[in-house]
Design a protein that fits this description.
mainly alpha; binds zinc ion
């Protein structure tokens, strides 16, 4: 089937990087570089990138936390500077991506190729459908942006950096560094979330999904590199679940919560993550099952069955523990001794779960390598 393209979009998305890269190079060669310009570019890139991660993605598309209206307005402005269409359209596409992942209806499905997932889908002529965003249609900040999107977006993406450039005496330098080059970077590094994050990395939670976890991709995508986890628990305000995982979006949301500016941060419990990890490992094993020789198949089935029972037992105990912990928290932790006991118990359960996951990982590796465990 011949694809139809939106040629004005093709032109715009070709000219922006050409002017951004070659225009900036030529300008810098002829006029030199002043220190303001890389600073304007890097600052603008981070502000707009965070506008997408913090605002468009985790706040508006996934509602993973609540935020003070002033911060919501700032997030809307920062996201507009990324020049990635309105919140309504972006979230409509993104929610469809999650709900219809890897199907024909997924707007940026990787199953249609890397180029399609990266930018091809943006330049294809498609009906500008907006659906599944009724909650956002009731949001006055979102609707304000929808009404005045182009003046806001063009103003912040090009006019503002040009004005900053004029302030230090080089309007064209400001426009090239802070406008064209900066928008190019924001575009393609966001596009990597749809392409690279469905292309490179591991799949610990959903082995059959195309979404992947790669810690290093997080550095290119403002912390969105843990995409297999994100597709499993899309409403979690984090993408990188370990405190040291590079995830500036998560850090900003948490930081603002200390001042009461973000509230109701949604976060999946640790034992539910471990259960999902168990399930992921089990599914990975099932995919490899055909490789196991008949003579030891029953041994493997028994081992998996045992691990399943252990996992269930630990999960149920941990679930009860968290229920009790929450009740104690509501009560202001009056019984300090019981609190310490529960914390210690939690540590033990964590170790027990890790041991079950490790034994399952060993089983999986033995199937993959062909070095079967006999007993
Ligand atoms: Zn995705
Ligand atoms: Zn998402």
């Amino acid at each position: 089937m011949n694809k139809k393209y939106n040629w004005s979009m093709v032109l715009v998305l070709t000219l922006i990087p050409i002017i951004g890269i070659f225009g900036t190079l030529a300008y810098s060669y002829l006029n030199g570089v002043v220190w303001h310009e890389p600073i304007v570019m890097l600052t603008g890139w981070w502000i707009a990138g965070m506008g997408i991660t913090f605002g468009y993605h985790r706040l508006f598309a996934h509602r993973s936390f609540k935020v003070h209206p002033a911060i919501q307005f700032i997030a809307m402005l920062c996201g507009s500077a990324a020049l990635q269409n309105t919140i309504l359209k972006w979230c409509s596409d993104h929610r469809t991506h999650h709900n219809k992942l890897d199907t024909k209806e997924d707007p940026y499905s990787i199953t249609k190729g890397f180029f399609h997932a990266h930018i091809g889908w943006v330049v294809e002529a498609r009906p500008a459908e907006i659906k599944g965003v009724h909650d956002l249609e009731k949001n006055s900040i979102v609707m304000f942006q929808y009404k005045y999107y182009w003046p806001i977006a063009i103003g912040l993406s090009f006019i503002l950096p040009m004005a900053i450039g004029a302030y230090y005496g080089r309007p064209l330098g400001g426009l090239l560094w802070g406008g064209f080059l900066r928008v190019t970077l924001v575009h393609h590094f966001t596009f990597f979330i749809n392409s690279l994050c469905h292309f490179i990395g591991k799949r610990p939670f959903e082995p059959e999904s195309t979404a992947r976890d790669a810690w290093w991709v997080a550095y290119f995508t403002f912390g969105e590199g843990f995409h297999n986890f994100h597709h499993k628990f899309q409403w979690d305000y984090r993408n990188g679940i370990r405190w040291y995982d590079f995830d500036p979006g998560k850090w900003a949301i948490k930081f603002l919560s200390w001042f009461g500016l973000t509230t109701e941060l949604r976060k999946v419990e640790e034992y539910q993550i471990l259960k999902a990890r168990f399930q992921g490992l089990k599914e990975s094993m099932q995919l490899q099952y055909h490789k196991i020789p008949n003579r030891i198949e029953s041994t493997y089935r028994q081992k998996i069955q045992n691990a399943q029972e252990q996992s269930k037992k630990i999960y149920n105990t941990w679930h009860e523990l968290e229920k009790e912990f929450t009740l104690m928290k509501l009560d202001g932790f009056k019984d300090k001794f019981r609190k310490a006991v529960l914390k210690q118990k939690r540590k033990m359960l964590r170790l027990e779960y890790a041991s079950v996951l490790n034994s399952l990982t060993v089983l999986l590796l033995s199937i993959k390598s062909g070095n079967y465990i006999q007993g």
